[in-house]
Structures are given as structure tokens and as C-alpha cells.
Amino acid sequence: MTTPGTPAEPRPSAPGTDPFATGAAPYGTGAPASNPPATPPASNRPGGPSRARAAGRTAGLGLALALLIAVTVILVLFVVFNGQTVQISLVFADVDAPLVLALLIAAVLGALIASLAGAVMRARRRSR
Question: What's the rounded Cα separation, in Å, for the pair 35 and 33?
């Protein structure tokens, strides 16, 4: 028995209450650890990777929306400032059309030619 003011004798702690326990079985017993892990797996922890992934996804969606709005505004300004009618000389005829239509047709034809050239280059690399 102890007197007031003197520390008590150390006692073994009950299973699962030892703050220094690692969950491993004592050395040489061959028994598996019976204590469950103190912390849940990383995928279930609040504030873990799932929360960071959701925050990144939200930031990505916000950035994509801002980019979409900026591109839309630029395209609308492009159409407004290039609305005058121009004469387009085709192989067989001359056509009067808005400048923006002529620019868009030229851009589409340029993209088509570039994609065809890329496809030809890929086919040549594969055949070697």
C-alpha cells in the first residue's frame, strides 16, 4: 500500500489501453496482434487523399469554367469585329461573305490539312 504523496507501483495496463502499444504481438509468442489498429486506413480518414482529390477536382472545374468563359468572350469579340463583308475568290466563282466566315473556313481547312499530315507521318512511322 502506498502513503499519500508517494507514487503507486507501476501496474501492467489492460489490453488496448497502453498508449505505447504498437499493435504487434510480444516477441517469441507467434501469436498475431489482437489489437485493432488505432487509426483507420488512409482512404477512410477525414482530410485524407479523397478530400485533397475533391479539392483538386473542384479547382480544376473552376479553372475550366473560367477558361471556357474567356474563350467564349474572345470568340464573340472576334465575330463582332470581323463582321464586314468581303469578296472571296473561289476556283469557279466569286462569293461575297462575312469575313468571320471566311476566317473560320480557312481555320477548319488548315486544321484538316494538319491532321491529315499527322496521320500520314504516323502511318509512315508504323510501317518502318
Answer: 6
**Cβ neighbours of 9 (radius 10 Å):** 7
Low-confidence ranges of the chain (pLDDT < 70): 1-49
Single-letter amino acid code for the residue at 118: G
Cell of 118: 499527322
Q: Which of 113, 74, 78 is nearest to 98 (CA)?
A: 78
| pLDDT for position 27 | 55
The dihedrals phi and psi of 41, each to the nearest 5 degrees, come to -60, 160
Helix (H) / strand (E) containing 119: helix 99-127
Whether the predicted model's global pTM rises above the 0.70 cut: no
How far is Cα of residue 86 from the mean position of the Cα atoms in its chain? 45
What is the residue-averaged pLDDT of the chain?
76
User: What are 94's strand-pairing partners?
Assistant: 89
What's the pLDDT at 66? Answer: 92
In one letter, which amino acid is 30?
A: G
